[in-house]
Amino acid sequence: MAVIPPLGFRTVSARAGFPRTSRPRAGLFSVLVAAVVTVVLGVSGTAAWAADPEGGSKKLRANLEAASKGYEQAKTRLASSKKRETQLNVTMKAAQDRASRLTTRVTAVANRSYQMGRVSTVMLLLNSSNPDSFIERVQGLDMLAQVDGSTLASYREDIETTKKAQTALKAEILEQQRQLKVMEGKKKQAETALAEVGGGSAGGFVDASSAAAEPAPRNSDGSWPKESCTVDDPSSTGCVTPRTLHAYQQARADGFTHYTVCWSQRDSGEHPKGRACDFSANASTFKDAAATGSDKAYGDRLAAYFVKNADRLGVMYVIWYRQIWTPSTGWRAYSASGGPSVVHTNHVHLSEL
């Protein structure tokens, strides 16, 4: 028998005949839905999804969130630093090339100044045979001085640019070393948190043929914008973040159209924040049994799809078939104890940054 979804799922509100809203209703709505669930459970005797059926603990989820967000932020800063390093190298190389080309002209200016000096220049003008010759020499010297001045100014500018670029490059190298240490620390944090649910190495789910999703919007510096539960969830009566909605829509556009629920009322986790979706392996419902055959293959492909598109969609972690993927650890074992919903053998769980 199918497991009853958590409160707020489309199936509960639709079957009960309640109008759909863009936010979870309180009061009478909650009482009536709870009553429906109670009656169904009393008749069937089947265990319902718990208030938080995802397994693990609040502490585990908090640590995974902190580790994943911290890792992603450090990764973004590292990428920005490497981008700045590349730009600085280009700037420094161009300045060095210009300075090298100007070296011959600068040397000629220095030699001429040494040979002629200020007195020699005055004597050159006084030795003019007539007024016209004098004017011509003045104009010639003025033009020569302008050329020399421009050459020397450009040379000094390029040398200064090179020095500044070299100093900035040293700072970027230190910044990159700092971010690599942060990433390593966040990786250890995630591994420690997962150890309580058997988080050893795992084979994971990979599909080289996974489609490439359209990227979700990022800030100009490459970071993810902060989002809250502000848009209607098409899979329930609740709300989701714009980034979660984008991931949901991209998955469906790429053929993953089995039964899915994102927002739901829980005691903790990302679902009540609109930052998570549960994608059933079954086409029409959540089954209280581990997926097999084509359903299992569907879940494998979907989990691989989210991992491949993690950078495009802002994935915090993916859980499927007793395994969990995070940006810092890759696929690890997730051996929580419980039924199919807890060990995630009947649905793929997606949490968004």
UniProtKB/TrEMBL annotation:
Spell out the residue ranges making up region: Disordered.
206-236
Which Pfam family would be a valid example here? Answer: VldE
Q: Which InterPro entries does the UniProt entry name for this protein?
A: ARB_07466-like_C
Q: Which Gene3D superfamilies match?
A: 6.10.250.3150
What residue intervals traverse the membrane? 28-51
Show the coiled coil region(s). Answer: 152-193
Which keywords, in A-to-Z order, does the entry hold? Coiled coil, Membrane, Transmembrane, Transmembrane helix
The keyword Transmembrane helix is assigned to this record:
yes
Q: Which residues form the ARB-07466-like C-terminal domain?
A: 237-344
> What is the protein named?
ARB-07466-like C-terminal domain-containing protein
